[in-house]
């Protein structure tokens, strides 16, 4: 796993942002994709432990499948005595709910046409990249790995996190219903907040300053 420091996102706070880059994506496209959440959590926590050694407060953010990864990473780090200051999950139903949700097919082993159709549904007007066969050939293996991870992920109930959880949802998300996001509140003993923002599945692209403000204010 690789964590990459990002440029400063907001001048009001002296904090750093680190982005997780999965194998099989972007500059790591030659690496084999990971198909199990627990293996990704192992890799992410191994990378983050040295970064968190200074004892400063930290938060975790994940969108879509990344919300599951952020949640399980938060639980793992909390078990090591490194409690996050906040967990922000976005565009993902609560982990306790069954996956796939009703009406959504199993996609990790679907043919390419069905997978592209699903991606067009999620991307909406921003689906131009799906018209390029060369880009699709690069992207589809990683997308299948993502869906395989979600298909095989098994939620294990726990005592609940001791950090606040903020759940973000898009009011027009075609696959993540707002009422399926609310049960994230069961995963914490330290306060829960839910925000419904305008947009589809990738509403985060339209609301990045607000999301940065939300995370930074908790740190």
From TrEMBL:
Xref: InterPro entries: AB_hydrolase_fold, TEII, Thioesterase
What the entry lists under Pfam families is as follows: Thioesterase
The chain positions of domain Thioesterase read 15-217
What family, per the record?
Answer: Belongs to the thioesterase family.
What the entry lists under PANTHER family is as follows: S-ACYL FATTY ACID SYNTHASE THIOESTERASE, MEDIUM CHAIN, THIOESTERASE
Full protein name: Thioesterase II family protein
| Species annotation | Streptomyces chlorus
